[in-house]
Specification:
mainly beta; four-stranded antiparallel sheet; Methylamine Dehydrogenase, Chain H; 2 domains; about 475 residues; 32 strands; elongated
């Protein structure tokens, strides 16, 4: 199952537009690795939040000025200082959030970042002005819509129909694409909806008395579960993958002991850790609430008031317990797991994104999104990517079986090895455009699994990819 990492929200008006920024997407290549994909179980349970969704946005003014807000919204340029023939009336984000398009009322297109230029109506005589645009899910094209409902498609955007030859009660003011790009909706200022392709009609405000005209529309995104973490079975002949909605997928000899997929979750699940014998596991959400299954029941607890979002969990390899780690570097031990220190109160350059335990249970490493490494207890520092120009942020860490090395994985699938961790420093894996979200080492320490948001598994060394269990 291929899923997008966010959604483009397009609000079209003659004055300004807003777009929502999604997380970055990926690519690269590696020798001796493999990748397979499977689906997370979907159960139709209600989500209290849209997980892994956008938390940043960009505004555009009629003069082409661009204003970014939030940590993920990148500024890639603007038309603010450019003399325009016609005002900007809309914008759309590229799927990975690495760029955007601006559209003027004459259909002129201004592309920035990784948003490609596929054509425009800038030199075409239009019957009516352009009022909005929508991009295809893969960013390989876009649609422009005029106030008479005329549709102009470019790149891989398909033409599914228009109201260009229909007498409208009120002008079209905006459009939105279906999540798979197989259709689109047009909306008129009286709230009339016109659906084409696979865009379904769910109702309109066309017959409703309105205090003011409709000026735009936004499309509700599909919110499939995203894989957020991976944990190997003790034998190395299987693994568990956790989804952000509390789903647990099992592979190989990893047993299924339950999950949270039928629960209404207040926050996304961010980690999974297995017990010593593989007879159970813990799931943790970003508020530090831990749910135990199988023989993990009765061990540990939850953080009642974390100082920041919890980003991961690591089981103690020796004692019956685990550690939780927060984005601020705070470490919370539970059960028989002991504390060896944390970064609480330390001013970090970048947030912590994961941790790995020493095989003897007497220490651990924390890793930040820039690859900075912080070692505690008997965990030794073997190097970091803190000063390296990374293709994307670090997303996880996995330790070798003897504790004399570790791997760091980026969201793009690039893996850096340190100490006795085997590899080419770096190894570049092709994730097929997906985002890596976790890494786990084999029990022997001669390989690793990397999981992406779609539960795709990339293997290296002696790690074997297994089909999902029924």
């Amino acid at each position: 199952m291929r899923t997008r990492l966010g959604s483009r929200t397009v609000l079209a008006s003659v004055a300004a537009a807003i777009l929502v920024t999604s997380a970055p997407a990926m690519a690269a290549a590696a020798v001796g690795s493999s990748i397979s994909h499977t689906e997370l179980r979907t159960t139709g349970h209600v989500r209290a939040h849209v997980y892994n969704g956008p938390d940043s946005y960009t505004l555009v003014a009629a003069d082409g000025g661009v204003f970014t807000y939030g940590s993920d919204a990148g500024f890639y340029g603007s038309a603010g200082g450019t003399p325009l023939n016609k005002p900007i009336v809309g914008m759309a984000a590229s799927p990975d959030g690495g760029g955007y398009w601006l559209v003027a009322s004459d259909g002129g297109i201004f592309s920035y970042g990784d948003a490609g230029f596929f054509g425009s109506t800038g030199s075409i005589h239009l019957n009516e002005p352009i009022v909005g645009m929508a991009a295809t899910p893969d960013g390989g094209g876009y649609w422009l819509v005029a106030s008479d409902g005329g549709i102009f498609s470019y790149g891989d955007a398909g033409f599914f129909g228009s109201t260009g030859s229909i007498h409208l009660n009120k002008p079209i003011v905006g459009m939105g694409a279906s999540n798979d790009g197989g259709g689109y909706w047009l909306v008129a200022s009286d709230g009339g909806i016109f659906s084409y392709g696979d865009a379904g009609f769910a109702g309109s405000a066309g017959g409703t008395p309105l205090n003011s005209p409709i000026v735009g529309m936004a499309i509700a995104p599909d919110v499939p579960p995203f894989a957020t973490a991976i944990a190997p079975s003790p034998s190395g002949h299987g693994y568990w993958v956790a989804g952000d909605g509390g789903e647990v997928l099992t592979f190989g000899d990893a047993g299924y002991f339950g999950d949270l997929s039928t629960e209404v979750l207040a926050e996304p699940v961010v980690g999974i850790a297995a017990t010593h014998d593989g007879g159970g596991y813990w799931l943790v959400d970003d508020l530090g609430h831990v749910s135990a299954f199988g023989d993990a029941v009765g061990t540990g607890g939850s953080v009642s008031n974390p100082s920041g979002p919890v980003v991961g969990i690591a089981s103690d390899p020796v004692a019956n317990g685990y550690w939780l780690v927060g984005a601020d570097g705070n470490v919370y031990p539970f059960g028989a797991a002991r504390s060896f220190g944390s970064l609480a109160g330390v001013d970090l350059n970048k947030p912590i994104v994961g941790m790995a335990a020493m095989p003897d249970g007497n220490g651990y490493w924390l890793v930040a999104s820039d690859g900075g490494i912080f070692s505690f207890g008997d965990a030794v520092f073997y190097g970091s990517t803190g000063g390296t120009n990374l293709d994307s942020p670090i997303t996880g860490i996995a330790a070798t079986s003897d504790g004399h090395g570790y791997w760091l994985a980026t969201q793009h699938g690039t893996v850096y090895n340190f100490g006795d961790a085997p590899g080419n420093h770096p190894d570049v894996h092709d994730l097929g455009g997906d985002i890596a979200d976790g890494i786990a080492s084999t029990p022997s320490g001669f390989g690793y699994w990397m999981v992406d948001l779609n539960a795709g598994i990339t293997t290296a060394g002696n790690a074997v990819s297994y089909p999902p269990n029924p």
